[in-house]
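stuck on this fold:
=====
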Amino acid sequence: MMLSAKSNRLPLNLPHLQNCIKKDSSAYEEEFKIQYRQYESVLQILMFNPSYLDKEFEAVITFLAHTVPCYKEKLAQFPEQIINLLRNYSTGLHRDTRMACCRALMILRSRNFIPLQNLLPLFFELSKCQDKQLRSYIRQNIISDIKSMNKKSRNEKVNKELQKFMFDKLSNHQQEMSAKFALDIMIELYKKNVWRNKDLVNQIALTCLSRSTKILVTSLQFFLGTDEDPEEDDSSDDEEVKMEKINQLKETLKANKHNKSTRKRQKVLARVKKTVRSIENKEQNSNINFSALYLIHDPQTLAEKLLSYVESTNERFEVKLMIMNLISRLIGAHELQVVNFYSFIAKYLQPHQTDVTKLLQYTAQSCHKLVPSSEIEPVVKAITYNFVTDRNSTEAITVGLNAIREICARNPEVMDEDLLQDLCQYQKYKNKNVSSAAKSLIHLYRLKNPSLLSRKDRGRPIDDSLKRTGSVSNVDMEEMEEDDECSDMDLETDSEQGSYSELDFESGDYSDEGEDEEEEKEEEEEDEDEEAQKMLNPSDKVRLEDIERLYKRPRHDKESRLATVIEGRDGHELYGKRKPKLNEKSSTSNRDKRRHKAFGMIKHKLKRHKKSKTFHEKQLESKTRSLKQARLKR
């Protein structure tokens, strides 16, 4: 009776039946036929009514997908039936039924019963359905499947077939959803270091001229964002495996430390160390994450097409900014000659323009030594006339001077001697931000071309060897003020300063503080050397912080003060509170209850402190006490 009852419950418990079939398929063939007949009946209903929903159909179809290896002959037509059902009734099926069929196909794909090349056309058709969960599931499974295929060894033949299919979908402009779906998969595979060839990058580069805003923005973000966070390219799965192996190594080391050392434990420890070492070597020998901009075949043609596109497009200004950013990055990275770009961007360089600091950043990025100085001079003059004037605010003047400094760091020949001397006059400006920006420009030309500066701004002479290495330790922003003062002072003051220092030394007013000061000076000199090296060899990418740099914080307005107050309130409730209860559900004490009662109810329980009595009060008390005693004696 017990065996019969257990066999009757098997059709209802499909995971248990599935496990039993894997152990002995012939013994449970009748139970399998029951589930297969149920599947066929539901499949016929779906042929006539695709929107029909059977809650048990998902469990049955998952059960059949897992048991295909055990009954290959009987389930030979099962994959084709599921594919035909999805292909013919993709939009009419209920979303739960459609998701169950896709999961069954992915189970069959994981067991290599269906090649991925046969599933991709179906999945791209299903990507047109208005089901966001289904699209994300299909995209994640395609990416993980291709990644697992290339994990141990790369099958170039299969990769070329898959890439050709993706390229065909991407180039089909009539089907925007399929092109966007293929673009997302290709970008994700590039970031996960699976497909990193030049053909993939150049196919994505063609979509930068797409008329679809979604495809255009996605491709622009790919080219502008691949070199910002290279650490994100590592997949989370590899990090989890690495952390798991490191934790295993720590546990084995701890076990060997406290337990007896045996051969088996030594072998386990050596095996774990070898796996951790292989993971670390794999990370060290991984390919350097070059930006995708450097893999483009013809950057000159692409930059010219992008410039003509941004001049004629009616896209939002944010999209135009991204296109201008990509053009400037292409010009700076490949040192291109796109002369019309400077005249195009110069008309946007106004203080009231939206995101003008970004436009100044793109202008500086597009400058390099091979660009004729006659093409960049109008841009520098436009920045000078629009920003570096007394009628503008101090922030606008500072931003303008910083932008001119970044442009001149990449092409020093664009600066005229008269214009440079006019800009140097701002080093004595009353605002510290403006004066510091002007001094940074003087510091740049002290390294690049001191002959353009006036004699008092040149500072001390610098050896050519120091200039080449960038180890310039005698040029500092603060020393520039001292150099200006020393140029106006007589030799007598210099001798007096020297005598004072000798007197101080003879009197013995020195201690260990001098060593600390020397260490601080050495650190400052190292920082100066780094800054000088950056000025002598600027990168092709300009940071927005270098344009918006303010050496002195501006005064707080009402909004900024309120923001700082709100920020300071974070975690305020953790301080100044009584010790919390160990159990939140426990009752409160009588002292806590007394706080919520009226004063009349607890007045008699208050402990009053005795006050010190005056001499008169003590006299009255002694008098009343003596009177009471006299009455008692009577």
Notes: Residues 298-456+534-547 form one domain.
